Design the sequence.
């Protein structure tokens, strides 16, 4: 029994060592890199769950999203109301009304930060966030905590879950206690919508 | 009066003046701001329009550009540390200590009065359900949390008010307490710096040092841009100062050389140097005693004194070499009086710069003239070489030249253009102009005018603003940040009604743990705002002047507002109007000058008076023609130079016409050459204004001398 306990202890230790989070300081971790390289064009359905500290209800909205690397993305919410948000490299549009991305500097900044990251360069992301990363089998988890005060004023942390092929979940914990969970399900067919404004 | 008493009185007045300046006027202040030349209030019927340019013209903007956020932020912080050091004590970084958390916290106690215009309209139309539904949609569907806790702001009224404030500055967003833009994949951080202009010397030095230091920090991935009126002033002043120093040195050396060549005696040099120095000292003393902060341009124009001083010194010394000095001294007296008459009307012009030039020249010139007669050598054993050439032109040739001059003037005058736009009178260096353009683009500056609203109290100003806005004229102003108490009270009642009607609906739809309850809040008064960020912002929008408080707002130049307590002012337009007004005054003064001179010359020379005035007048007209051919419009500063052309030109004419012997011709030529070279050298300065003065004086003096010598000097050989 003692031997079995020892074996289980060693096994758990080895397994959990694999899942241990470690801070990312420069190079992009291997599985995340593979995910970034694989992600060229993707269509997925999403489910957003919003939990407010003042409410007992979980607010759910859903729809689909389309992403094309180095082109932009489209966020198509179907329920509870129809909303379409499209972002290209220089413009964005809400329900068909086009505007310059320069007018939304924070969003523009985050988008170009993510674009850079998906092209293998994490430097901008690491400047804005402290990043802890862990891997287990084919999955990875990335916890980002803001380093800059203006971001830290709003968001506590951002956790992303993914595999070598997909981003499966994003959890955003805001400073006031609000939690927003985004879950993605890769769609087998490509959504026909074009990413243009 | 005995000579000793006269000398004592002369020295006493000078010493008393210097002591008075040292006691009452130190530290001395010299105004360097070009805008300060123009008193825009004059046009404005008691509206302090000059304060607008004060408010906007004492800021320098530094912009750091990089593709790498780290590099941009690091350098921005380094520049702030640099500016906060003792080395730059006249420059203060404007704080953007914005914290969303703190600003929100500061405003929550006043929440019911702070409602955005769109929400207020809905409340007034009793569309409470629409407000509740929009809040529910925003709260439940947005990826972002509410800006303010739902306990404090369940209908998102204060959040909406804050978001509206945030979008008022569309160009810049606050990022780590710095103004930030992310444009075309580049990061821009802007540091606005307040400039304290009290000690203009220190400010000039510090701004130039900063510009030099920042210019060296540019790399492939880092560009630093700097702009603002104080920068232009500082660079212009430093460049002009060093150039004028070099040119004044050359001019002084010329004066000494010509003085030696003329008299071949060392002590004559001393007479020239002392008379010029004492004249300049007395002129400056009078200037500091009469004016709070004389303008640097007065000293630039004041160099005229060197020309006039040299004239008197040379003629006085020439008189001392002659047996019969009566004619020379008489000519000197006439020339002195005519110059005084030329500069005296400027005293009554009501234009500060003209008054300063008048005081400086009159006092300096009187000192030189009186000093020479009191202390100058009465007899010099030296014979000046006579001019050997016959300077008289044949009558026919003279007539042809006169006709030619007439044709040129008549043919050119219709094409003369004038320019009163201040921007056209100054052209910055290419690099600074490029920086200015980049920063203007980032600031999204479009042509705008300033709307000034006045009231005895801030509340009156706020109410006037609100009544103007209620007539469909929208603009961002003080009342966009703080509504009047009257409006806050109305908002209070409207919000109370919203809670009464929609609290239960909101609780039910959002499944809130507690029912939203209306809690009375305080009234926000601009004077009592705690948030340093909002205070800073409000201070930029208010001016206190006399019994009135004024608010400032930027509006489109074609905005029309019909309210006795509101006025739309275009700063550049009012500057142009004012310069136009000064130009008109200067035209009149030139005419008055000509009439006064003609009257005085009639007393001296009876019917021949007009002959004495003609060379200067023809020289001015021909100079205008030449400038027109060169494509240069006539500006206010050209006109100022014409006073000097008349003053000095008349001297040449009086001496050229009245001198009987050829010995006396040489000093006239040397004194002309000194002034011509001294002023002509100003043509080579980089500052457009001084350059145009150099060109005008070079042309005017050259033509005055040549015309008086070759066309108006009677044939003395007959």
Sequence:
């Amino acid at each position: 029994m003692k031997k079995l306990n020892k074996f289980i202890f060693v096994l758990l230790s080895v397994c959990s060592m694999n899942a241990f989070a470690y801070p990312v300081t420069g190079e992009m971790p291997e599985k995340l890199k593979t995910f970034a390289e694989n992600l060229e064009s993707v269509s997925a359905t999403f489910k957003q769950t919003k939990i407010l500290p003042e409410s007992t209800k979980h607010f759910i909205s859903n729809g689909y999203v389309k992403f094309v690397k180095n082109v932009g993305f489209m966020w198509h919410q179907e329920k509870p109301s129809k909303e379409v948000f499209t972002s290209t490299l220089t413009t964005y549009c809400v329900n068909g009304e086009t505007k310059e991305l320069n007018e939304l500097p924070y969003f523009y900044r985050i988008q170009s930060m993510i674009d850079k990251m998906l092209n293998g360069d994490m430097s901008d992301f690491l400047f804005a966030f402290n990043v802890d990363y862990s891997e287990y089998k084919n999955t990875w988890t990335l916890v980002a905590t803001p380093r800059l005060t203006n971001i830290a004023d709003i968001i506590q942390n951002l956790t992303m879950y993914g595999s070598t092929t997909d981003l499966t979940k994003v959890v955003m914990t805001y400073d006031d206690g609000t939690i927003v969970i985004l879950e993605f399900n890769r769609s087998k067919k490509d959504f026909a919508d074009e990413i243009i404004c | 009066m005995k000579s000793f008493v006269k000398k004592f009185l002369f020295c006493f007045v000078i010493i008393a003046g210097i002591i008075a300046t040292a006691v009452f006027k130190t530290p001395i202040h010299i105004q360097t701001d070009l805008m300060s030349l123009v008193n825009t209030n004059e046009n404005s019927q008691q509206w302090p329009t000059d304060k607008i340019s004060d408010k906007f013209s004492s800021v320098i903007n530094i912009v750091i550009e990089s593709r790498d956020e780290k590099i941009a932020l690091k350098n921005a912080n380094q520049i702030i540390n640099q500016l906060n050091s003792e080395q730059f004590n006249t420059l203060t970084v404007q704080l953007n200590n914005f914290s969303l958390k703190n600003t929100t916290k500061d405003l929550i106690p006043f929440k019911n009065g702070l409602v955005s215009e769109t929400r207020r309209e809905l409340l007034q139309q009793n569309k409470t359900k629409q407000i509740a539904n929009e809040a529910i949609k925003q709260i439940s569907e947005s990826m972002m949390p509410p800006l303010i806790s739902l306990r404090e702001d369940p209908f998102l009224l204060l959040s909406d008010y804050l978001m509206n404030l945030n979008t008022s500055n569309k160009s810049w967003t606050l990022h780590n307490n710095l103004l930030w833009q992310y444009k075309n994949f580049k990061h821009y951080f802007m540091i606005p710096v307040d400039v304290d202009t009290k000690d203009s010397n220190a400010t000039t030095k510090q701004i130039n040092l900063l510009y030099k230091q920042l210019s060296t920090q540019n790399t492939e991935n880092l560009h630093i841009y700097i702009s603002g009126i104080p920068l232009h002033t500082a660079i212009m002043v430093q460049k002009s100062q060093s150039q004028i120093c070099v040119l004044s040195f050359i001019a002084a050396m010329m004066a000494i050389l010509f003085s030696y060549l003329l008299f071949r005696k060392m002590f004559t040099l001393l007479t020239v140097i002392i008379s010029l120095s004492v004249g300049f000292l007395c002129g400056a003393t009078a200037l500091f005693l009469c004016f709070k902060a004389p303008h640097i341009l007065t000293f630039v124009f004041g160099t005229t004194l060197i020309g006039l001083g040299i004239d008197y010194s040379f003629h006085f010394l020439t008189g001392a070499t002659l047996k019969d000095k009566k004619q020379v001294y008489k000519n000197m007296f006439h020339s002195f009086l005519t110059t005084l008459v030329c500069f005296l009307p400027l005293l009554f012009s009501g234009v500060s710069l003209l008054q300063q030039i008048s005081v400086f020249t009159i006092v300096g010139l009187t000192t030189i003239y009186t000093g020479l007669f009191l202390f100058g050598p009465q007899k010099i054993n030296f014979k000046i070489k006579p001019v050997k050439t016959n300077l008289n032109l044949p009558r026919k040739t003279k007539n042809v030249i006169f006709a030619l001059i007439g044709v040129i003037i008549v043919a050119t005058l219709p094409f003369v253009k004038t320019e009163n736009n201040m921007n056209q009178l100054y052209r910055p260096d290419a690099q600074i102009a490029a920086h200015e353009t980049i920063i203007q683009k980032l600031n999204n500056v479009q042509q705008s005018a300033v709307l000034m609203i006045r009231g005895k109290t801030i509340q009156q100003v706020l109410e006037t603003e609100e009544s103007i806005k209620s007539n469909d004229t929208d603009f961002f102003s003080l009342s966009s940040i703080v509504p009047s108490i009257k409006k806050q009270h109305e908002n209070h009642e409207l919000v109370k009604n919203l809670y009464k009607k929609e609290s239960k609906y909101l609780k039910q739809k959002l499944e809130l743990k507690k029912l939203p309850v209306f809690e009375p809040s305080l009234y926000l008064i601009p004077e009592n705002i705690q948030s340093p960020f909002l205070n800073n912002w409000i201070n930029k929008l208010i001016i206190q002047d006399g019994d009135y408080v004024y608010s400032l707002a930027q509006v489109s130049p074609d905005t029309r507002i019909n309210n006795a307590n509101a006025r739309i002012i275009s700063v550049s337009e009012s500057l142009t109007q004012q310069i136009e007004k000064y130009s008109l005054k200067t035209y009149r003064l030139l005419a008055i000058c000509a009439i006064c001179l003609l009257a005085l010359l009639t007393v001296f020379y009876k019917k021949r008076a007009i002959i004495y005035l003609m060379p200067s007048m023809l020289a001015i007209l021909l100079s205008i023609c030449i400038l027109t051919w060169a494509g240069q419009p006539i500006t206010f500063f050209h006109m100022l130079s014409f006073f000097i052309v008349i003053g000095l030109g008349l001297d040449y004419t009086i001496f050229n016409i009245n001198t009987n012997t050829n010995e006396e011709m040489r000093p006239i030529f040397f004194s002309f050459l000194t002034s011509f070279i001294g002023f002509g050298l100003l043509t080579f300065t980089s500052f457009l204004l001084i350059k145009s003065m150099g060109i005008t004086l070079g042309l005017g003096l050259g033509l005055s001398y040549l015309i008086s010598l070759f066309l108006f000097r009677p044939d003395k050989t007959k």
Q: What stands out?
A: The radius of gyration of chain B is 34 Å. Chain B has a mean pLDDT of 85. Residues 265-287+297-384+392-426+573-712 of chain B form one domain. Chain B has 25 helices and ten strands.
